[in-house]
Write a structure and sequence with these properties.
homodimer, Molybdopterin biosynthesis moeA protein, domain 3, six-stranded mixed β-sheet, Molybdopterin biosynthesis moea protein, domain 2, Molybdenum Cofactor Biosythetic Enzyme, Chain A
């Protein structure tokens, strides 16, 4: 058995694959840039009015003379004419500033006298209410670096440059294989020793939260041959998640089936509760997680370990981790790292009841996992603890 | 002009519609329950072995005698036989405990003597390694309340009850209409006074982050008739987002078009920077936001106001808000509430450069919006400020 930190280290060392894809910009939010973005144009692409008003040349104005209105420019117009000294153009927000003009006075700050206008604006200085060409981006300069996370505002920014495709780190292809003779699908009638299969639901939901749809979800009986077939069909995945059958009992066929498929074991069993039997292996670029069968253990191992592999693939951190204050004291077995279902309130975190690995009722109410590290038995109320948000 | 708080209050008072839908459980993560979930079965549905080992009746054991092995039960088996005193059954994790048995000894804690086993486990007590029937849920009891947020662990829990459909608050149908003669789509060649349309990209991405796909996205010219037609086609939406054309200039047709469509104005203009011209109206159940045309203003108003309406519809908070420490002092106009692009580092938040409402380059790098409230001019380094996370 290895420690939690050793296990995470092994995952990080082996999660070295990424895949770069070019995708439409309107699907790119949440991805990370695989190459920098260069500005193909100046933005704004021209000197642009920031207001509805009148554009003119400030330098040629004596602060007293009126202006003759010689034209109009609204957003979208291809303004080609030029204003001369003491000429002004009626202009609207977003419009091209005519040649010769460098300043816009707001329409609220003028009075009209027939064909001419008089300016009443003490604060007006050269360049007022104008967005100069290239004041946001200059053509050909790097505007977003490689590894930049594409937030909605990044997507809007990139669209404004006229770019409609971006190269990003793709999401991994994930396969889910749940195993167990006892499993039936929710919605069916249960009899005898059957129980409802819930692990694929929890894992799909957790993947869905990070915008990943698994490429396949299968339910396979405790049968080495069938398992071997199912695994071998998914070896083109980036990540394979199996649940149950990872102990060394008479009916635990996951590990022998993985061996038959040529998957190399990288670790098996961690000093933790829940999730002690966690298995991790690799075959070429496919990373394989043998998650425990208990739903709370499976999902805990997803949040603590599978996310490490996904993070490495998509080049961004998935979890929000905090240091919070423990609301009540807790005693645990000293040799094991505990991951406990918790609920945050302000800067405090409470350990929920029903921590057993088959109990999902507390997990359903939890908003975080609290990590109580190995090597320590007693955790006192008020102590600072590591917390990983799961909602 | 009204204050930020007044505007948010008006949105909350008018965002009173919800829609309940029944959806498949494997699509339900992220939704909120519209009705409580009742357990249709006991879980576990039977006394269940938590280990690979041997099941027997503890009370009838004198602590010294050996047990005769009379059968085997593995997960999924319909175990119908009964064990008698000093009989044991070979049992595996997840299996039904045979009638007469109440305790499981782990396989590591026995020695075999031909057909019988001897137990070597000082700590063994009655009920060890058994998950009693109904110890997680009892049939017909409420296990999740109305308004419960369906996290992945909740979904797993509900699946384990055998439930494959849930009634939840649906996401709103959102329509996006971007307006402006100057707009062309990214990817096309730009000339003259044209600029690239970016608002629909930013808004779609922000909606996508909360798992909403807009029902329609349209680009409409500054033409009152065309706008009126476009809006009237979308009046069956729950939320309509328009961008630009909400000022009172000669080419701002959004507000007259909304009036023609029977949309009732609830507010127009807020004492804030950016986003002063924000409009909010309603027609029957459709909530209408007239967002400013500047991309930074439009997206800021989305995060600060549109999310209020979406939150009310889906019955959950969308944003994570924190109180953080300002990294440097800042002076602003006292009458206005400012929303500034910021970047968090630990408990500190820095105000980014380029806060102008047409500047998306800073927004692209921001991870939060910092709110500096109206009625105050100077904000000192080290002061606590409100922060809304946007990534």
């Amino acid at each position: 058995m290895i420690s939690v930190n050793e296990a995470k280290q092994i995952i990080r060392e082996n999660a070295t694959t990424t895949r770069v894809v070019e995708i439409p910009l309107n699907e790119a939010a949440g991805y990370v840039l695989a190459v920098p973005v260069y500005a193909p144009i100046d933005t704004p692409p021209f000197n642009q009015s920031a207001m509805d008003g009148y554009a003119f040349s400030f330098a040629k104005w004596d602060k007293y003379s009126d202006f003759t209105i010689v034209g109009e420019g609204k957003a979208g117009d291809d303004v080609t004419f030029e204003v001369k000294p003491l000429e002004a153009v009626r202009i609207f927000t977003g419009a091209v500033l005519p040649k010769g003009a460098d300043t816009v006075v707001m329409q609220e700050k003028i009075t009209t006298q027939g064909e001419s206008i008089r300016i009443h604006d003490e604060q007006l200085i050269k360049g007022c209410n104008v967005r100069p060409r290239a004041s946001q981006t200059k053509k050909d300069e790097t505007v977003l670096p490689e590894n930049h996370y594409l937030s909605p505002s990044s997507v809007s920014f990139v669209a404004g440059l006229g770019i409609d495709k971006v190269k990003v780190y793709d999401y991994p292809r994930v396969s889910i294989i749940v195993t167990g003779n006892e499993l039936i699908k929710p919605g069916q009638k249960r009899t005898g020793g059957e129980i409802y299969e819930s692990n694929s639901y929890g894992l799909m939901a957790a993947l869905n939260q990070i915008h990943i749809t698994p490429k396949s979800v299968e339910m396979v009986a405790d049968d080495e041959e069938k398992l071997t077939e199912a695994i071998s069909r998914q070896l083109d995945s980036d990540i394979i998640l199996l649940t149950a059958g990872v102990s060394v009992g008479d009916y635990d066929f996951v590990i022998p089936a993985l061996e038959k498929c040529g998957v190399q074991k990288l670790f098996h069993k961690i000093k933790q509760k829940p999730g002690k039997p966690l298995y991790f292996g690799k075959r070429q670029n496919a990373l394989v997680f043998g998650l425990p069968g208990n739903p709370a253990s499976a999902l805990t191992c997803f949040y603590e370990y599978v996310t490490e592999a996904i993070s490495a693939f998509i080049k961004r951190k998935i979890n929000r981790d905090y240091i919070l204050t423990l609301a009540a004291s807790y005693t645990k077995k000293p040799d094991f790292n505990y991951f406990l279902k918790g609920k945050c309130k302000g800067n405090e975190v409470a350990i929920l009841n029903h921590q057993e690995s088959y109990m999902m009722n507390s997990f359903a109410l939890a908003d975080c996992l609290i990590e109580l590290e190995a090597g320590k038995e007693y955790f006192q109320k008020g102590e600072k603890v590591k917390v990983r948000m799961i909602i």
